[in-house]
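Quick start: what a row looks like.
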Amino acid sequence: MKNVTLDELKAIPTLQTVPDDQLLWFIAAGETIEVQEGERLFEKGDPLDKTLIIMEGRIRICAMQGGKMREVFVVKEQAITGYLPFSRATNTFGYGECIQKCRMLRVHKDKLQEAIKQHYELTEALVHTMTSRVRDFTSQQQQNEKMFALGKLSAGLAHELNNPASAISRGASSLQGQIKRLPEIFKEVAALNIKPEKIDTINQILISKTHQSDRPILSMMQRADLEDDLSDWLTDHDIKDFNIAENIAEFGFTTDDLEHMNSCTPQPQLGSVLEWMSNYLLQEKMVSDIKEASTRISELVNSVKTFTHMDRDTDKQLLDIHAGIRNTLTMLNYKLRKANIQVVENFDLNLPQVRALAGELNQVWTNIIDNAIDAMEVNGSGILEIRTQLDRHFVCVYIKDNGPGIPPEEQSQVFDPFFTTKDMGKGTGLGLDVVNRIIRQHSGTVKVTSVPGNTEFIVCFPLTDN
């Protein structure tokens, strides 16, 4: 095995400005080791007490993310990893595996304490390596946080889109079946000899039922009782198609309406007219259901478009904060329903607009509201209250949940990078750090107050920036 040489260390960009005597000390303080492909250098939770300089080969670092063990990054030749001066990390967050035979210089943490006291340039180079590593890792984790949040939104959105899409498919199929019956029904109705004034009366009844805006909403029991009454009336008048009762009950027909129609078209004409009317009403309902489902899809697509801010510039613009909050609630609607959470909106709709980046504000609302949902899940239900108001020179948003709360000793840490109270793999610990960073970029403030049953995040934007 070839020992690490001075020339090899000087070839590493990070160490090029370090004096030769300090690099020679570094070599003497460490040991050259070889690691075969497939070997583990460390396991998750091992003490972080050694600095590794990779001269040849590659190491893969893996950690839990999203509930699964994933590759976080690969350490290549001329890279420095492991313990670095002034790092607060004490244990490894994942495991390290050699994926290409490695030769490296390994220096124990105790030796580096001596370097801090005696070798300034070497220490400076290693600290620079640490800050670069933290910056790169934070950037990567923030991207992972965005993808993690997007994944949760996508899962909910898939369910939200699937329901109206299925309704459209069912409605179109049923409508096609009803249309196929039209020629036969038309033949029966065309053969009837009904006076024009009687036809006008029937049309008026039909139009009044299909266009009434104050149709009463019946409970399941009331609907069943009405269908029974209509079925009994049809039976008494020798009409055996009980689907008619179900269809006309949907539009609020009563036995009095049937009596009125019977006075216009007594049997045997009444049976054919009611069958035609039932078919018409059923088609009306199917078209209405398809229209409602397609409108829901359109609203969801529009919410996604607005949420991701696809059609706007990257400069700050004057925005109504309520639009972003409502779009976020739309995106998280499936998760809210699944967790049995009631949303209470107390919005001051006269608030002035704030100058902001809509896409970034949506990320703020998503992270805070998503955390609140996760907190209330343990209760099996919850109340999410969102309130907006003008506080002198600030527009403020209050987001409150009735979950178990944040322990007092952890409240000062919730905005720290990588701090999380969630189970391993369920969070990156960067959600609220991202919130804090975005709000600061908007010259605003965010703070939290929490006791069991009442956790409230308060986000404020200054009007002077508007």
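That is the whole record. Confidence is low (pLDDT under 50) at residues 423-430. The longest strand covers residues 50-65.
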